[in-house]
Amino acid sequence: MKRALALVLAIACSPLLGACLVGDDKAFTVEAIFADVGDLPRFSNVQSSDVKIGTVRGIKLDGYHARVTMRLKGDTEIPSNAHALIRSTSLLGEKFIDLRIPDGVTPASDLLKDNDVIPIERTERIAGIDDALFKLGRLLEGGTAGDLAAVIHSSAEILRGREEALGEIFTRLRTFSGVLAGHAPDVATAINNLDTALQTLAGSSDQIATTLSSTADATQILAGQQADLSRLVTSLDRASSVLARYMKATRPASDRALKDLRLVLDQVMTTTGDLEKVLSALARFTDLWPKSIPGDYVQLDVVVTLGQGGPSDASSASISARTAQLRSLARLVEEHQRAMR
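and the corresponding structure tokens:
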């Protein structure tokens, strides 16, 4: 009985206690315009830097927006460009209004004063878990709580036994996010280059259309000549077949000809040394012979004839004898020149 009485007294005195918190003579009133206040209750706290500075005294409709009246302590010093955010103390905790200066914004020199109004541009309601559940309920399109329970149970069954793998995925995702954040300038540059390329393509749409039209015309021409192309391919196939049969039939003769040619080349290579010596002596002779008779005009024509038949022993001996004679004649020419000097 005593506990029930104490509880009733606490409930009855709670508004009075809330009023006493901001009941000083210097307290002042500030209003804020919100697009949506959700389930923000009256007499909820107003905080700044996690310190209570006042309470919500009233919520009323202002056109299509909500006008929230806040009673702040007299010693509260809040810059006049502060933002008003509706937040929760926890995932499903109480709602309160947080007055703060956003990051990157320089606080104003003047402070909020009595009857000031924070415009809707500087107010916001931070979505909580209740908003997510509400959206999930709408996603279920009128489904019951049982449907929601079935979804949650199915999700739990899917994740059962995969906790370590899921944690590994989150760890790698965090690492990837860090790497991606480190390459943010490169990603931005790549996006800009892609945008430039797309703009270039958009500016070249006429040329692209002309190219595609030409390609279509060429395709039509090829389609009209399909029969001729088919006959050409068939003829080439027949020609290749005939050529293959010809090569197969003449392969033995070709092999014999190549073997004979190899023998001839081997013989030529063996006689190259002697032929080089003979030609060197002949060149020397043709150079010295005109000089051996000074004062006279001498024309020397040398004709070298190569026979078709292979060299016999007699012809080889004759060539050797002639080579020796040429060498002797060259020596005589040299001696005659020395005598003339």
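(Above: one complete record from the training split.) The CA atoms of residues 281 and 325 lie 11 Å apart.
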